[in-house]
Amino acid sequence: MNIWEIIIISLIKIVIVVIAMLLTVAYLVYFERKISAWVQNRVGPNRVGWLGLLQPFADVFKLLLKEDIVPTAANKPLHTLAPFIALFVAFSTYAIIPIGPPIELFGYKINLYMADVNIGILYVLALTSLGVYGITFAGWSSGSKYSLLGGIRSSAQMISYEVSMGFSIAGVILLSQSLSPVKIVESQYGWMWNAILQPIGFITFVVSAFAETNRLPFDLPEAEPELVGGYHTEYSSFKFAGFFLAEYANMIIASAMIVTLYLGGWQVPYIEKLGLSSTITTIIQIASYFIKSAAILFFFIWVRWSIPRFRYDQLMNIGWKIMFPLSLLNIIWVAFLIMILSL
Amino acid sequence: MPVKRRVKDLNLLQKLYIPEIAKGMALTLKNMFRPNVTLQYPEVKFEPPDSYRGRPVLVQENNGVERCVACGLCSRVCPALAIEVQASETELDKERYPVKFEINMLRCIFCGFCEEVCPEEAIVMSKDYELVFKNRDDAIFGKEKLLVQVEKLRDRLEFLRKFK
Prior knowledge:
heterodimer, A: mainly alpha, two-stranded antiparallel ribbon, B: alpha+beta, Alpha-Beta Plaits, 3-stranded mixed β-sheet, 3-stranded antiparallel β-sheet, 6 helices, 18% strand
């Protein structure tokens, strides 16, 4: 393949991923409202369009038409920059996640990920750390005490849970002997999904993913009774939409990471034994990735409406005194597994 | 002195927290499949029970004559001063009738005192709750807007006989 073909295929992939992410984020808001309504015995949005499916467009349209208010005491460049940092982080993490095995389309061999970075997982960790900046800038540059408190609490929470997240990822990397997500998915063949091999690591990673995305039960920084809006109190119109979308995009990224690292990515156990044609196998594998991702997103929404929120000191307690030792225990367990599996 | 074990102390399995979370989430999941209690207004309208105090209306007998004798008790007892009655003579047996009977719906507080004090069961609280006006003058209901046939108000009159 010459350079032009590579560039054009990559551009097409980028356009598809960006549009798919934007649509998924918008519809995730719709599904959150619908699922939260079902949990509470009510119906949720059903007036705008059939079954309320055009509701996200109504929401975005409303947010765009609002007046853009910036407080006088705000630091204008940082105030404007913060939501875009959060959005940038969320969208660029999707570059390395494989959604299926390599396919043959019109004679070109296309890989179903945008870039096979050798150190893909390190790239993801680096981007999540950059995401903390988005929230810190938002909290500090709003010029209000409560936003500052919300921003500080949120960034401290995200930094604390990155430790246990990193150690859980280290457990996965030890088993699959590679930092690239493509190879991690390929190493989880058969029944050997990492969720079954390393249950402690799975639990710590899922809990850390909840804390990283500021989702209940760890959403004290943006809880309304506590801090009004936390770090995004002083935002209105498009920038608020930016934070709003960034939170849901972070959720999509977290679920994509959980599926890639722990639930086998696009692998379906023992599908080659069925002997189907390779096109159908590929389609089933791609579909299984999306089904797993959707199940984890449903789990995120389900937990939000079931559990009360943690107080800030309880949150930090769990992050440092419970999750961190558990993830170290996970590393010991993985070392034990490697010893057994190589015998 | 060892610490006494209280009922609200968590046992070990509860302290692990994850089983409790799982129990809570099972309850939420069960609730997702229960039927919802939402009323799809305006396609389906709420039918209030007989004791509901809606908009006050004047009872009109089958021969087209209102029951009201314009005694003025409802006007005196109304806490919001919403009712205005003007009496006049008539040839029928009841000898008095209201030539002007106006309720200002913007003042009415739907308390039902007028219905309780009326000696003729001539004014009752109907089940009507949908009131929309486009300007202040439309909100002063005259006699023609307040008269309702007695057949439509049977359940309210039944309720009044039994309970009030």
